[in-house]
Fold this sequence. Notes:
This is Enoyl-CoA hydratase/carnithine racemase. Pfam families: ECH_2 (PF16113). Helix content is 43%, strand content 10%. By secondary structure, the chain is an alpha/beta fold. The protein has one domain (17-367): 2-enoyl-CoA Hydratase, Chain A, domain 1 (Alpha-Beta Complex). The protein has a 6-stranded mixed beta sheet with strand order 1-2-3-5-7-9, sandwiched between helices. Strands 4-6-8 form a 3-stranded parallel beta sheet. Strand 2, helix 1 (41-55) and strand 3 form a beta-alpha-beta unit. Helix 2 (83-92) packs across helix 15 (324-334) and helix 6 runs antiparallel to helix 13. The chain is globular, with a radius of gyration of 20 Å. It starts with 16 loop residues before the first strand and ends in a 16-residue tail after the last helix.
Amino acid sequence: MNSEQVNGPRLVSNGQVQAEVNGRLGVITLHRAGSLNALSLEMVRDLTSCLLHWQADERVLAVLLRGAGREGKPPAFCAGGDIRFFHQAALAGDPRLEDFFTEEYALDHLVHTYPKPTLALMDGICMGGGMGLAQGCSLRVVTEHSRLAMPETQIGLFPDVGGGWFLARCPGHVGEYLALTGETLGAADAITFGLADLCHASATLPTLVARLADPTLIDAVALLERARGSGIPASLEKLALQREAIDSHFSRATLVDILASLSADASPWAQHTLAQLNKRSPLMMAVSLELVRRARHLTLAQDLRMERDLVRRCFHLRPGTASETVEGIRALVIDKDHQPRWNPTHVADVTPEMVAAHFTSPWPAHVHPLRSLE
């Protein structure tokens, strides 16, 4: 559907979001496959426009979100936000960077609170902003290709898009583990940890969409049951087998304590995890740990407002190239040297004051950009 389609939402992303009503089903396809369907500001605006339009459309019984495939390559639902844009905008002082995060977080809240059933087909890569969309859906479908993660500490950021809230609701201390390491989950672990609901074979997804689009369907409960009815069983994967170790290490009071606990454990899993953490931004790991633990006691709206404060601080407490996030993106995707110069370099040098500064809101409550979320 394009921006001129009659009786449809006006779309501005030049085809990077495609929307159609198929039977009783509103189908949204992220169509930026060459960039793993990473979200631009225009895509965020189109997604919001579609959802708001269909919210009041009596033809639409439910909404399905999926990612466009890549011929001959592994699929992707959505790899996250467009981090190259973040880097360029931060260095240029582009105000659209502020718009992106405000509007993306508001979109995530809209998905979580949507009055109609929503379904996410998390086939392939689903990370960062893709998780922000999918985790709010009524039904989260994974496949044998699914790779789910919140890898933000790799780029000197924190698990945003509601990540504090939904990671905090994983069992035990899995949320802290996923937030700090950015570890990737397969289908079975995602289901076990409460980040997905059921598994379908990737090849059966077109059939699933056709079943859900049956124009004779008039009941949302029946529609959801159709989606559940053709799932395939998933066996336990590697991370679920490490639950006891995850809870033991990641329940420790501080980041220093977590690393010390892992250092004292000679198991291959513990040493691999320690090596992962030693590559991450010490400061942003500490911020991420605090985020998940605070979010356990917050509503989704409160968490998103807190994350909006945090992301502003990530780009402005140390502006330009001094930002941990700008430096992390530089090392990963701009220069691709994979040698980020974190500041501080060592976990022991991260002070409580450094962490606390990120959690101080730059806005009075009455003018907070997400003040209207409930």
